[in-house]
Design a protein that fits this description.
heterodimer; A: mainly alpha; two-stranded antiparallel sheet; 9 helices; globular; B: alpha/beta; Dimethylsulfoxide Reductase, domain 2; seven-stranded mixed sheet; five-stranded antiparallel sheet; 19 helices
């Protein structure tokens, strides 16, 4: 093998390692959610059986997203457990009346409009089709923020190559388009961008 | 081992080749494009709970139903309401971007006296002084609202006069008002039941009346069909978008629509093609044809086509007595599918002329289009949310912008049925703004308020027990428990719809063919349309779609 081939291969290998291993680590920074939250505990102990008991679609068709503090205060107005998260929730947020500053995995740019009501009520999609079994998880997964765009890694998806990802992975416009193409549903530009 | 310059170059080539098969270039490109959307100087809507509120557009008297998407209490998007009885889910490009208008660079933020900034107190003092020195003329561009009622009351109380700047659709009904004594503001077109519509230059498919009404009707009954259920015949000089999409385009010389109407009426009467009686036009067929630049056979053929599929109604672009007389000949006045009387309550308005003599003060409401330039020596107090540029008044006073003020929404000018809605104030103005009605209320505390008038109108509607309330569901008014319930629903975006009109309640007697020339108001709708300001979204829609072509491109 010639010297040139070796040097070329070395450069290639360094770039591949840098691109596939170092770059994602540099690009994304991990952030802690303000509270530990366990979907599984809420489902099992509090008898919350359906996602829409907390993540409801309002009467006007808009999606409530993460429940407001008053919803949490319905049960947690006083401490009902001994965990550190419970103390933080009650002392730092519920009693002073502050909303919990959750880091939202699905936060999109302001020019994107996604209607849960249309997808759930009109298209009849189950929550798990996009959110997998997240509602049964025992802890929130790590929030990774993109240093350049400022959005969550969940938008791009955890696979940097975006190949062979699960249907619930990724929230890019191409993901919306792929799903709409599969279901033969056409939406014009103004359907999502206002 | 010595590292040579060649090694570095080869290594770099290898690294560059390797980078191409990593996510680095593609991901960086994607991320930087998103990053560029979020530069600090790019305005972003506040983050917060997103909700949708139903309301009505208040930018023009058509009052289209609107769904306003609010994020953290600020409107960030607007869409039509499909169930709205008149607009049927459609909005014009201006309406689609209405939420952006409040941040428009031409938004008025401070009171101005001449070229200098002033204060509300100075404006109020000057207005009170001017009113005490002589008659006041109050001009309104959107009559029928609760605020209009306040303007009218103020003018009456102070010995002045109240005048309205009416749109071309309402002006086109003026002849029927003259002949029947019924106010033009109580008349409408029953287009939904018509089989043939003869439009004399009215841009039916391009912004006439309530934007969604005729376009949806056309899409359902006629678009793309060679022999449609609804025939639209466009008599117009240029090949406008309406003419291009109509079932038939009759190109005539500009300004000869009255002659064509007279020619058609003569053929209808001479050949006994209509059962209704009407006066014979003085113009002979050959004279009409010569004026219009058409062969006589073309007018004869047009007359036969007009009555081939009835009922037929003729629509003028502005006040044109000859076209109104053609409707009388066709028997379309006070008839199903023609000109109908939708309301018994409406009162006639005195139309505002540009020349306003013998006035000490002129107060112009923000609803009056900027194109209206008063010719007067009086002191002019003009309210406006956006600076229209020309014709600088003595006082320019900032008015509430889009959804910054509670207002009610009376029936759209061309609607065949009466409607009533309320557009609550959804947004808090960022600057000190006042509507003309609020300003007058501050100078005369005995005046009522828009809120109280809306309240009493709701009570009147409730006690009338007629019509239906269209909200989340359709509820006959007779089944509503209280006036308060009605008002609550209206505040939440419901629309009250009156009963179907009784055509026989409108009668027009016409003894001779009108010789009056068409109104001096008549103007090209294409040049009259541009608003003083356009939101970015409307500009984008305008540019990127064929919703409206530039006027210079629309000549035949």
């Amino acid at each position: 093998m010639s010297r040139n081939t070796l040097v070329f291969g070395f450069g290639l290998a360094v770039a591949l390692v840098a691109g596939w291993v170092a770059f994602p680590r540099l690009l994304y920074v991990q952030k802690q959610q303000p509270l530990e939250f366990r979907h599984k505990t809420h489902a099992e102990k509090s008898g919350v059986a359906n996602c829409n008991e907390c993540h409801a679609v309002r009467e006007d068709g808009s999606f409530a997203g993460i429940p407001a503090m008053e919803k949490c205060a319905g049960c947690h107005s006083e401490r009902i457990g001994e965990s550190k998260a419970e103390a933080t929730l009650v002392n730092n947020f519920i009693k002073p009346g502050h909303e919990t500053p959750w880091l939202v995995y699905a936060r999109q740019p302001a020019n994107v409009w996604f209607s849960h009501a249309i997808h759930v009520k009109r298209a009849g999609m189950a929550c798990t089709e996009c959110h997998s079994t997240y509602g049964e998880s025992d802890q929130l997964h790590t929030y990774q923020v993109n240093r350049i765009s400022g959005y969550s890694r969940d938008i791009w998806g955890h696979s940097m190559s975006r190949l062979r990802r699960a249907p619930h992975e990724g929230m890019k416009m191409s993901d919306c388009e792929d799903c709409h193409r599969r279901h033969n549903v056409e939406v014009g530009c103004l359907g999502c961008h206002e | 081992m010595k590292v040579t310059r060649r090694d570095l170059l080869v290594w770099s080539a290898g690294a560059a080749a390797g980078l191409l098969v990593t996510p680095v270039p593609w991901k960086l490109l994607d991320d930087t494009s998103i990053w560029s959307q979020n530069w600090p100087w790019i305005p972003q809507p506040a983050r917060g709970p997103v909700e949708v509120k139903l309301s009505a557009c208040t930018l023009c008297p058509n009052g289209c139903g609107m769904k306003v998407k609010m994020a953290a209490g600020w409107p960030v998007g607007v869409a039509g309401v499909r169930s709205h009885p008149v607009s049927k889910g459609a909005l014009c490009p201006l309406g689609f971007g209405a939420h952006q208008l409040n941040w428009h660079p031409q938004r008025l933020r401070v009171a101005r006296h001449g070229a200098s900034p002033s204060t509300w107190n100075e404006a109020r003092t000057a207005f009170v002084k001017a009113c005490s020195e002589g008659p006041v003329v109050v001009i309104d561009g959107y009559p029928g609202r609760a605020a209009s009622s306040l303007l009218q009351t103020f003018a009456q109380k102070h010995g002045g006069s109240y005048r309205a700047v009416l749109g071309s659709e309402t002006r086109a009904l003026a002849s029927y008002e003259t002949w029947s004594g019924v106010s033009a503001s109580a008349l409408g077109y029953d287009l939904e039941n018509a089989q043939t519509i003869v439009s004399f230059g009215a841009p039916l498919l391009d912004g006439w009346g309530t934007p969604g009404r005729f376009t949806r009707l056309w899409a359902e009954c006629a678009a793309g069909k060679t022999d449609p259920q609804l025939r639209l015949i466009q008599v117009e000089s240029p090949l406008s978008r309406t003419a291009a999409r109509a079932w038939q385009w009759v190109p005539v010389r500009a300004g000869t629509e009255a002659a064509v109407a007279a020619g058609v009426a003569r053929v209808l009467l001479e050949e006994r093609l209509v059962s209704a009686r009407g006066p014979m036009p003085p113009l002979t067929l050959s004279e009409a044809a010569a004026q219009a630049g058409l062969p006589t056979d073309a007018i004869r053929e047009l007359a036969r086509t007009v009555v081939a599929r009835t009922p037929t109604v003729a629509i003028a672009n502005d006040d044109n007595p000859a076209i109104a007389a053609l409707n009388v000949v066709l028997g379309s006045v006070g008839a199903r599918a023609g000109i109908v009387r939708r309301s018994k309550r409406a009162e006639p308005y005195v139309s505002a002329d540009a020349a306003i003599p013998n006035a000490r003060t002129v107060l112009i409401d923000a609803s009056v289009p900027w194109g209206f330039t008063p010719q007067t020596d009086a002191e002019v107090f003009r309210f406006a949310a956006w600076d229209g540029g020309s014709n600088r008044p003595d006082w320019l006073l900032p008015a509430p912008g889009f959804l910054e003020e509670l207002t009610d929404v009376p029936t759209a000018p061309t609607s065949a049925v009466e409607t009533y809605a309320v557009a609550p104030s959804l947004v808090k103005a960022q600057h000190e703004v006042q509507s003309a009605a609020q300003f007058l209320g501050s100078t005369d505390p005995t005046l009522s308020t828009a809120e109280k008038i809306i309240h009493s109108r709701c009570e009147d509607l409730f006690h009338g027990r007629a019509g239906t309330l269209l909200g989340q569901e359709e509820t006959p008014l007779a089944k509503l428990a209280s006036a308060q319930k009605l008002e609550e629903q209206l505040w939440k975006g419901a629309v009250w719809v009156g009963e179907e009109p009784h055509p026989a309640s409108l009668r027009c007697e016409l003894k001779e063919w009108p010789t009056a020339v068409p109104s001096a108001h008549a103007e090209s709708w294409s040049t009259a349309w541009p608003a003083p300001v356009l939101p970015p979204l409307a500009t984008k829609l305008y540019r990127e779609s064929t919703l409206r072509e530039a006027p210079e491109k629309r000549t035949a």
